[in-house]
Specification:
Length: 450
Amino acid sequence: MKKLLALLISGGIIFQAYSQSLIIKDPEIEQMLKEVSKDSLQSYIYSMVGFGTRNTLSTQSGSKRGIGAARNWVLNKFNEFSKKSGGRLSAIIDTITLQPDNRRVNRPVLLGNVVATLKGTNQDDNRIFIISGHLDNMRSNVMDSTGDAPGANDDASGVAAVLECARVMSKHAFSATVIFVAVSGEEQGLLGATYMTNKAEKEKWNIEAVLNNDIIGSNNSNETNIINNNQIRVFSETFSVSDTGRKLQMIRTLGLENDGKARQLARYVKEIGERYVDNLEVMMIYRNDRFLRGGDHTPFVNKGYAAIRFTEMNENYYHQHQDVRIENSIQYGDLPEFLDFEYLRKNTCMNLANLANLAKSPPMPQEVTIDTRKLTNYTNLKWKAPETGNIKGYYILMRETTNPVWQKKIFTTSTFVDLPFSKDNYFFAVQSVSLDGNEGLPVIPFPGGR
């Protein structure tokens, strides 16, 4: 009993000792965030707007107008960044020919995602983290492929964030692989994202997180006239449509309806984003997307990947899916003058901090279980170390069942822990911690012996 008491006291001391260190920032990540440039983001936006239209069905043969020219420009930017990557960053336009679908594709069209891959330095670490934005845009009529459509916020803002993250991160090395992608075909029905997801599933990519950025550059809403550049929404699905049968029954039995992969990722990005970016609150929205709407993360969610969507806090529908015009003294159209580039910079930093922290973190602990062999007021957790990565230790995460975010972190170097907290009253998770203090994604324990 004395030995057990000493262990618990020691655990408490460890928690107290590390409670301050939880807010210490990785100096390398801090330096990367300082390199994020508002001027660069603005330059990207104006360049993309300059192509006139980026509709998926627009011309692909012109050098200065249409989706083809825009794709080539993004590819050239990635190739420019690759020169400072030490050979780690490479880029392609990944294409597929789509046939008419009698919906939003009325003729055969070459669909192309611009994909840049920053290869991880650890050959044994096959994890992939993805950041995306969609390059295509639309006018009031999604089938209008010839008229001007600036698409400054929807979604040049998301692509600008992708580009800037690639520019800064390509100069640094990470254990895991990071993929930066400017997707096409979003407005035509998530076509580019669906193509990429199917390819990932077929080739068995080990995707651990997808950060989709769609409309992240404006700070105000129409109608309500709310102005706010200190909050961004993160949308996350409760669990995947693939969670059926016995898996779904286990989710209900354990009360884990709020702990699917996407929801765990949303908690993670809130914690890391707010840790590194001043004057920015990441607002968790318990929906896969806005009401009855969708985005490029959805095909990934439907395949069981952890995928979330970032969107500005207050959307302005005068500047979304609108022909450029003045009507009743109101300026319509998705024009760059309606963007807040400081807000876009903060949102880009939030993305970068999360990508870098994830890519520097160790893989997740394996076989995380909670002992259920007997009734007890203790919670007994055990797990196995990940097969790769340099581990400093692990955080045991705790939160009350009604709390949206993790409330307590307890550090340990062991692979098991006995906690004087009832599993009836709390949710728990375990996450790996690197030598530099970078946390990986949390793993929820499932019932098991000991």
